[in-house]
C-alpha cells in the first residue's frame, strides 16, 4: 500500500556494564550514560555505583563499577560498535588488557539470546565470577536468569555463590566535584553534619533569625557552622511546618539565591556542600545554577511533577524524603495499619515507589539519597520507632546501598519525650537522636545546633564507625 512507512524497529532490552578507574571515575560513567541517551540507546535504569578492588591486574587504582538497563533498536554487534564508538569519543585510554581505563562499556545481556561471535559473547563470559558485575546486575534484575541454558539459576544465586571477599565493596553517591562521594556501605565512613540555614520568617524553630541579618552577620553565621564541623549547608526559603503559608516562587528564590551566591563567593576556597531545601523544580534549577550541589525535597518529588525530570536533566544529587500529602495535610495521614505492614514497611514501600519514580524520570540511582521524614506524616512515638529501626529501612529490598539523611533536630517529638517546650532548648534530646541516627547508619544528620551536634557526631562516629 502506498503511504505506509516501514514498521519501526523492535525495541530490545540489554544490560551494559559500566566501569572506570582513571580520573573522575563517576564523571566518566555519567558522560557515557548521557552519550548513550543522546544516541538513542535509552538508559532506563541504573544500578548503584560500587567501588571495587582491581581484578586480574592488581597494580592499578580502584574501579568504580555499575550497570544499566537500556532500550535499543540496535542488533548486538551494532550495539557493540556504538558502545565502542562512545568509548573512543570519550578518549578511552586502555594501556593493557584488563588494565586501567577511563571508561569501559561491556554488553552483559541482550534480551534472552545467546551469541558466540569472535567479537562478542552473550551472556558475557565473566559474569559468574565477578562481584563487581554481579552486585550491580543483581540490583537491576535479581530474579532474572543470566544463562538461558540454566533458567533456574538467577542473578542473585550467582552473587550468593561467590566466596566472601576480604574487603566488602561499597556504593558511591557523588555530591559535587569538590567533595568525595558518600560511601554508604563503608563501615568507617564519617557522618556528614548538615547545618540548617533557614531564610524564612516562619520556620518552627528559628524563623526569622537569618532573614534579619546583614550580609556580614550572615557570613559570620556560616563561618561558625563550617568552623564547628559542618560539611553541608541546607538553605531553605519555604517553611514546611504544618499550616505554614506557601510563598510564591519569586519570594522563595529571593530568599535562597542570595545565600547560595554568598557562600560560593565568600567561601570559594572551602569545599562546602550546598543543599537547597525546596519542593519546587523552578527553585531547584535556579539554585543549582547559582551553585547548589544537592536538591533536598521534603515531598520526595511528589508535590511538583516537574521536579524529578528537572533534577534528571541537571544531573544533580537529590534527597527524597518520605512524606504523605502536603505539609498542611501530613499530620492527618499518619496512620500505618498493621494490616498493611505497619510503620516501617509502610515508609519503606512508599520510598521504594519514590525511588522508582525518580528512576523513571531519568535520575541515576547513584544520585539518590533517602530521608525517613521524621515529623512528616509521623506523630510522637512513631518518630522514635523510625530511629529505632533505621537499620531495617537501610536494608529494605529496593533501598539497600542508598545513603540516608536524618533530620530530627529540635522536633516536637523530642519536646514531648523530654518535656522541653521551646524548640531551641531541645539540644540534649536532639543529641540523643543524632547519636541514634549514627548508630542506625545515617550518612548525614541535619541539625540546627551545629557546634554541639558536631561533637555528638564525632563521638558517635568513634564508637560506631571504625
Automatic annotation (TrEMBL):
Keyword flag ATP-binding: yes
Reaction it catalyzes: 7,8-dihydroneopterin = 6-hydroxymethyl-7,8-dihydropterin + glycolaldehyde; (7,8-dihydropterin-6-yl)methyl diphosphate + 4-aminobenzoate = 7,8-dihydropteroate + diphosphate; 6-hydroxymethyl-7,8-dihydropterin + ATP = (7,8-dihydropterin-6-yl)methyl diphosphate + AMP + H(+)
Any one Gene Ontology cellular component term annotated for this protein: mitochondrial envelope
GO molecular function per UniProt: 2-amino-4-hydroxy-6-hydroxymethyldihydropteridine diphosphokinase activity; ATP binding; dihydroneopterin aldolase activity; dihydropteroate synthase activity; kinase activity; metal ion binding
Cofactor(s) listed: Mg(2+)
EC code(s) of this entry: 2.5.1.15, 2.7.6.3, 4.1.2.25
Cited NCBIfam families: DHPS (TIGR01496), folK (TIGR01498)
GO biological process, one term: folic acid biosynthetic process
InterPro entries recorded: DHP_synth-like, DHP_synth_dom, Dihydropteroate_synth-like_sf, Hppk, Hppk_sf, Pterin-binding_dom
Keyword tags: ATP-binding, Folate biosynthesis, Kinase, Magnesium, Metal-binding, Multifunctional enzyme, Nucleotide-binding, Transferase
UniProt family annotation: In the central section; belongs to the HPPK family.
Protein name listed in UniProt: Folic acid synthesis protein FOL1
Keyword Magnesium belongs to the record: yes
Organism of provenance: Rhypophila decipiens
Domain Pterin-binding per the UniProt entry, residue ranges: 191-458
Domain of life: Eukaryota
Entry function: Catalyzes three sequential steps of tetrahydrofolate biosynthesis.
Annotated metabolic or biological route of this protein: Cofactor biosynthesis; tetrahydrofolate biosynthesis; 2-amino-4-hydroxy-6-hydroxymethyl-7,8-dihydropteridine diphosphate from 7,8-dihydroneopterin triphosphate: step 4/4; Cofactor biosynthesis; tetrahydrofolate biosynthesis; 2-amino-4-hydroxy-6-hydroxymethyl-7,8-dihydropteridine diphosphate from 7,8-dihydroneopterin triphosphate: step 3/4; Cofactor biosynthesis; tetrahydrofolate biosynthesis; 7,8-dihydrofolate from 2-amino-4-hydroxy-6-hydroxymethyl-7,8-dihydropteridine diphosphate and 4-aminobenzoate: step 1/2
Amino acid at each position: 500500500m502506498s503511504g505506509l512507512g516501514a514498521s519501526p524497529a523492535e525495541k530490545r532490552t540489554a544490560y551494559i556494564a559500566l566501569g572506570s578507574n582513571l580520573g573522575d571515575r563517576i564523571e566518566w560513567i555519567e558522560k557515557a550514560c548521557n552519550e548513550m541517551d543522546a544516541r538513542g540507546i535509552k538508559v532506563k535504569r541504573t544500578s548503584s555505583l560500587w567501588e571495587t578492588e582491581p581484578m586480574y591486574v592488581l597494580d592499578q587504582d580502584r574501579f568504580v563499577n555499575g550497570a544499566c538497563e537500556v532500550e535499543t533498536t540496535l542488533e548486538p554487534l551494532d550495539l557493540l560498535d556504538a558502545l565502542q564508538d562512545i568509548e573512543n569519543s570519550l578518549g578511552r585510554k586502555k594501556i593493557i588488557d584488563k588494565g586501567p581505563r577511563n571508561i569501559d562499556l561491556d554488553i552483559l545481556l541482550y534480551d534472552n539470546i545467546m551469541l558466540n561471535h569472535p567479537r562478542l559473547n552473550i551472556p558475557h563470559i565473566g559474569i559468574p565470577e565477578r562481584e563487581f558485575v554481579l552486585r550491580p546486575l543483581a540490583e537491576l534484575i535479581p530474579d532474572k536468569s543470566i544463562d538461558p541454558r540454566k533458567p533456574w539459576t538467577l542473578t542473585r544465586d550467582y552473587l550468593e555463590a561467590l566466596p566472601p571477599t576480604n574487603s566488602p565493596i561499597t556504593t558511591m553517591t557523588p555530591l559535587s566535584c569538590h567533595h568525595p562521594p558518600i560511601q554508604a556501605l563503608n563501615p568507617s565512613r564519617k557522618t556528614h553534619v548538615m547545618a540548617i540555614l533557614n531564610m524564612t520568617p516562619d520556620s518552627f524553630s528559628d524563623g526569622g533569625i537569618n532573614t534579619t541579618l546583614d550580609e556580614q552577620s550572615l557570613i559570620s553565621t556560616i563561618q561558625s557552622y563550617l568552623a564547628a564541623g559542618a560539611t553541608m549547608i541546607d538553605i531553605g526559603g519555604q517553611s514546611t511546618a504544618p499550616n505554614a503559608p506557601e510563598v510564591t516562587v519569586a519570594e522563595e528564590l529571593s530568599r535562597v539565591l542570595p545565600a547560595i551566591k554568598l557562600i560560593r563567593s565568600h567561601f570559594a576556597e572551602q569545599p562546602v556542600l550546598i543543599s537547597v531545601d525546596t519542593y519546587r523544580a523552578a527553585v531547584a534549577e535556579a539554585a543549582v545554577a547559582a551553585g547548589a550541589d544537592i536538591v533536598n525535597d521534603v515531598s520526595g518529588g511528589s508535590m511538583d511533577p516537574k521536579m524529578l525530570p528537572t533534577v534528571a536533566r541537571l544531573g544533580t544529587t537529590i534527597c527524597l524524603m518520605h512524606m504523605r500529602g502536603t505539609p498542611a495535610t501530613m499530620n492527618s495521614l499518619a496512620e500505618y495499619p498493621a494490616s498493611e505492614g505497619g510503620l516501617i514497611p509502610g515508609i519503606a514501600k512508599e520510598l521504594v515507589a519514590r525511588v522508582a519514580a525518580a528512576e523513571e524520570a531519568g535520575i541515576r540511582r547513584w544520585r539518590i539519597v533517602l530521608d525517613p521524614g521524621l515529623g512528616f506524616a509521623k506523630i510522637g512515638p512513631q518518630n522514635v520507632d523510625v530511629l529505632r529501626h533505621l537499620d531495617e529501612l537501610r536494608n529494605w529490598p529496593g533501598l539497600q546501598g542508598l545513603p540516608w539523611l536524618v533530620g530530627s533536630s529540635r522536633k516536637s517529638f523530642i519536646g514531648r519525650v523530654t518535656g522541653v517546650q521551646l524548640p531551641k532548648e531541645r539540644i540534649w534530646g536532639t543529641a540523643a537522636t543524632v547519636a541514634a541516627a549514627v548508630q542506625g547508619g545515617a550518612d548525614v544528620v541535619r541539625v540546627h545546633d551545629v557546634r554541639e551536634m558536631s561533637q555528638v557526631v564525632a563521638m558517635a562516629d568513634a564508637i560506631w564507625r571504625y
